[in-house]
């Protein structure tokens, strides 16, 4: 099942790490550590193999992929020996990375994206192309009446206004081209009524939002523990320090607010109340792609006697994210092949701000993921859970 993976933001840290990782796995130069789809509970015949994956994408910059990979190797994100061993493979992906269309109306730009996707699908004889958004986090867009309805949206896109933020224009083009769409970012993407209706019309599945790779991953384990032990969380405060392109983007207050909003859903929906405190994200250039999160939790137990928990998470963001990008592409491709449409709520395991579900507990999400994988591997049309 030859499957296209089209990365929006294809020259960024997460995308470059995903591309190098996929090429290294395909060449047998590395093992699948971090790839959930290679665990016995999830792997199986319904998933395209790493060899089946064909990579392409859009970006607004033209820095050669090999240069981006070398820079990530110099920063300690990628092993330099892998980048050196994959010179030819990276050169072969380079022509599949297209400049994001500019100029004209949004309808014209969407049509250009659709052309790039369908050309890619036909040229490589792909069964399908999964579009994965890993581009820079956007601020929330201004509401627009055309966001409510597909016909109004199609008409509005032909005018001079910027009706959709970039992530949503890619989502619009993806579903119009019949491609499943995954949003690994907190940006709006497909989360507009006009776009979800359009995805239903085109019978494509979609998944999101915002990959769960660090602080929120730990929260999704620890918050259910407090709830199950009937301990009352009084406060939960966290600070995330990061550099890299993502950190620089999040220095913008509006993009920062979108990311913080995405991280905040879990506590209220897991505990049933909101403890004091919040999450902060700060840009520290020196840290590069290595993120540190500190959290302090205070709680009350039996007879009101309190306690405290602190944790420090120190991880390489792109190396944590890239295997999940490959997992999501493989699972979404298999779901599309099995006839799924609409939100893939069983993929909540991967996301901070999961679509169509309030289940944030990692253990419950894992059970749902394993059930989905089992149904996909058993074959059949596997009616989607809505
Ligand atoms: N690394 C993680 O652990 C993690 C976890 C969850 C979510 N994310 C999200 O993944 C995204 C990517 O992170 P990153 O570290 O790779 O960031 P990055 O800044 O290194 O890469 C973003 C890329 O997107 C490109 N881009 C910007 N606007 C674009 C547009 N309109 N069209 C096409 N490309 C565009 C940029 O040129 C850049 O190459 C961010 O939104 C981040 O919040 C990352």
What do you see in this structure?
- The chain has 386 residues and is α/β, with parallel strands linked by helices.
- Helix content is 42%, strand content 18%.
- It is built from 13 helices and 11 strands.
- The protein has helices at residues 13-26, 65-74, 80-85, 87-93, 106-123, 150-157, 166-176, 193-201, 215-228, 244-250, 253-271, 317-337, 362-378, and strands spanning 3-8, 53-59, 97-99, 128-133, 181-183, 205-208, 232-242, 279-283, 290-300, 306-316, 342-343.
- Helix 8 (193-201) links the parallel strand 5 and strand 6.
- It is globular and about 65 Å long.
- The structure holds nicotinamide-adenine-dinucleotide.
- Nicotinamide-adenine-dinucleotide is lined by residues 8-9, 11-14, 58-61, 100, 134-137, 166, 184-185, 210-211, 213, 244-246, 249, 317-318, 320-321.
- Nicotinamide-adenine-dinucleotide binds at residues 8-9, 11-14, 58-61, 100, 134-137, 166, 184-185, 210-211, 213, 244-246, 249, 317-318, 320-321.
Main β sheet profile: 7 strands, parallel
Structural class: alpha/beta
* Overall pLDDT level: 95
Bound molecules: nicotinamide-adenine-dinucleotide
* String of helices and strands: EHEHHHEHEHHEHEHEHHEEEHEH
**Residue windows where pLDDT falls under 50 for at least 5 positions:** none
Find the count of extended strands (DSSP E, 2+ residues).
11
Instruction: Walk across the major sheet and give the strand order.
Output: 3-2-1-4-5-6-11
Oligomer: single chain
Counting DSSP H or I runs of 4 or more residues, the number of helices is: 13
- How much of the polypeptide forms β-strand, as a percent range? 15-25%
Overall, the morphology is globular
In angstroms, what separates the terminal alpha carbons? 26 Å
What Rg is obtained from the alpha carbons, in whole angstroms?
Answer: 20 Å
